Fold:
Amino acid sequence: MPRVCLIGTGGMLPLKNRWLTSCYIEHNGKAVLVDCGEGTQIALAQFECRISRIEYIFFTHCHADHISGLPGLLLSMGNCSRTEPLDIFLPQGFGDIPRKLMCICDKLPFEVNIHELPSRQGLLTADKIDPLLRVSFLPLRHSVRCLGYSFEFGRKPVFLPEKAKALGVPVEYWKVLHSGENVTLPDGREVAPAEVTGAARKSVKLTYVTDTLPFEGIARFAENSDLFICEGMYGGEDKKESMDKKGHMLMQDACLLAQKANAKRLWLTHYSPAEKNPLEYECTLKTLFPNVTVSSDGENTEL
Structure:
């Protein structure tokens, strides 16, 4: 199942103990990276996340603290002998930004495919990681076009050997059936996967939202997430008016959204550099949403 690591939890500028906001999601030996601020490649190495496994990069938006680490990451990928194409997704109208950043990445040994996502809610597949992985995106409310992402990992039903044996299915056909394909046995019988598997299993859902005003659509988008990662720039209520003007959220806003979304867990991220000790708000935040984690760089889990 997916392994999730918050590479950095800072917004605006990196600190000596806090990298800029980025998230690494690994599944089936391959990975997705969400955002890539300055220094991301160093943080990836620090937390033992393999850049060679990254197949997709999803940018929430194109402010510098979310994208300026891209050239260095691409160069490092090339120096690690990557030859497979890399796919980059970002909001519509901003495709030229990564292309311009790449002007300092001379002669990369792999192709970079840039995809602009429309300014409406949508869905795409991530077949290079798992045919059952669906990625949804939601337009957010920031000072520039910005997207939230939800990763839903479909799960195959459990294969039941006793059912296969009862039907006389030879062992060499089991893997094909578990992959979801019908098989034709030597005696001419056709066996479907449903005949040798258990009930359908609930998918695993991870939602990532940062740099936005809070609004009801986020709660619907993150509904029933196993893990909801959400911006919380400040923990002080006195910052609310300022955050509303700048298109950002307080930690309390994130907790209320997680509650409305019926999320299992909430990780906070994208702290202001002025918020030196986000942990001081933890007790207060837990009264709003008990399963909140005031995350730090390197926060990780397996879903």
User: Anything to note?
Assistant: The chain has a mean pLDDT of 94. The first strand starts at residue 3 and ends at 8.
